[in-house]
């Protein structure tokens, strides 16, 4: 394969008006840390290549599972060998080892060990954490059942305390109570944190967590009373053995209930937690983390699509003027540039929600639960909103690559199937957004009662007759104010509708359901406002040329967000039709303004080729060579004439000939 860089890509890089390495340093916290990231990733990529790892897309499901295990083992061992302690460095390594390749061991640390550490008492941690950390216990987080995932209070698996033996009896009483979906459960885990309804002294005490061993630690055979296995092929995620688990009167010692927040005493007496939502802490942590996962996925997808669009030449703009880079079509820019903006906006939001999570967790550790509701509302809303826009964005990128985007060689199907479940796992997005809306409605009531709100919620104090002062300059404060007004107006309006329905005697549940489409819209508007504000704040920290480019990108994010939900902004007359027309024109101007920097903006993400795993998104732009090479490696090309030809195709063809011969004979008679 040629080693030269495609001349179109070279020219794109030369015409950029800013230095992309400045942006790379922003993303990876400086030049030194960027260098270190590159060292770690290159090392892993080279070592894995020497170990003979195969391209994910060319493997069968079983092979994907096996290779994911092999790679995950390499990931943990390399972490240890390099003495990595910084979580970012671990993430860089992980990205290079398992890029969008689901691993059966992912949940061991992120969900099993972390949830255990959050919910176990100090004594329990002393006993079990070492076994978990040295992978003697390999585990996952087992909550969802066949019949219930969203509505946790509906879970049916029971943990009944038996004071005579001081044990819990874990039992799945119905087919719908079989645990279903947990990652790594089917074949890999020997232990798990199980969520079950606690029953003691005949009292139902709600959902609690239990440490349950499901397989023998040496033979790996399922223990007595345990039926466990893989749930079968899915939409994607094939490296992961998402599993089912049926517990049939399985007994575990009393000490296996995770007792940090609530306890069962030996005689069966129940000690309540300070706040029963603390049990949900593991989910909150994962939701905050998912914003980072999906932002990485859209960043990868848009890198591929923009580089490919710079290399791909097809059709003429000027008849006879020669074929142009497809990136020069306004429609291509209209599809792709907002995705670059989404990639940066969500990356920035992922950092701030992660910082906020750390801050509030530290307060919770000290017993201060004041910010828990806000953390829940924000992590749920951002997980859902960013999940949606990143999933949609990945698909936009795939479609923008035309036919080749449909090939696994593009890397885009692999990214898509790895992004889309983020809209379902860790809380189905609509369900989560309704939780955010629940918080917004509570805040609206506070406004009505004249109570103080947290600073970030002050947008709910809406000025009803307000008109936008937006003009063609697209000043930051006016754009942000548009989002504040819209989010406040929608939340207040739906809050009033709920109040009105309730005062007419409609019960609260019915009133909620009848307004839930608008409640979702309120949650989205709030989450979008958060992204717009957060992105704006970051842009203001840049200087020089970089600031100019990032301000244009921010404006594109803000303007396209308004245009995509124009009704929301115009319904109460806040934005006039003249302003809407002005925004439509300014959006097109922004596309032209950003055009020279499109490639530099995606280059700044600094994804190695092995991470993108894409014939279309290669750094050197040699896409046709890579596509052809991928095709030649197709398993179907291993033989010139396949067995299937002799077994099915030829007999079928011959049967058709015979039929036709018979028909010809009949017609002659
Ligand atoms: C890598 C892939 C790994 C995947 C793993 C998985 O998928 S694992 C499986 C992932 N599965 C899922 O994610 C399942 C999704 N489902 C759920 O999380 C819950 O069923 C629910 C939150 C939807 C409702 O729960 P519910 O019926 O108990 O609650 P309710 O509506 O009656 O509200 C009661 C109060 O609780 C509050 N509150 C709620 N959550 C939290 C929290 N985390 N923190 C703090 N607070 C929270 C709420 O604000 C409300 O406060 P208020 O207003 O009364 O002061
Ligand atoms: C790849 C993957 C990995 C997973 N990993 C794990 C894991 O490790 N551990 C684990 O325990 N689980 C896991 N899950 C399960 C996952 O958490 C659940 O599927 C998820 O929480 C959604 O629940 P559900 O399947 O019951 O959806 P449902 O609730 O049945 O959703 C169906 C529809 O009903 C709607 N709906 C439900 N309730 C409401 C409501 N109150 N208001 C409005 N609409 C509603 C939803 O919006 C959705 O449109 C995983 C799932 C996937 C796909």
From TrEMBL:
Catalytic residues of the enzyme: 426
Similarity remark: Belongs to the acyl-CoA oxidase family.
An example Gene Ontology biological process: fatty acid metabolic process
Cofactors required: FAD
Keyword S-adenosyl-L-methionine in annotation: no
Domain annotation Acyl-CoA oxidase C-alpha1: ranges: 280-441
Domain Acyl-CoA oxidase C-terminal: 478-654
GO annotations of cellular component type: peroxisome
Annotated ranges, domain Acyl-coenzyme A oxidase N-terminal: 19-137
Natural source organism: Batillaria attramentaria
UniProt-annotated location(s): Peroxisome
Pfam families for this protein: ACOX, ACOX_C_alpha1, Acyl-CoA_ox_N
Biological classification of the source: Eukaryota, Metazoa, Spiralia, Lophotrochozoa, Mollusca
Pathway listed: Lipid metabolism; peroxisomal fatty acid beta-oxidation
Protein's UniProt name: Acyl-coenzyme A oxidase
Chain positions recorded as FAD binding sites: 144, 183
Major subcellular location class: other
A molecular function (GO) term: oxidoreductase activity
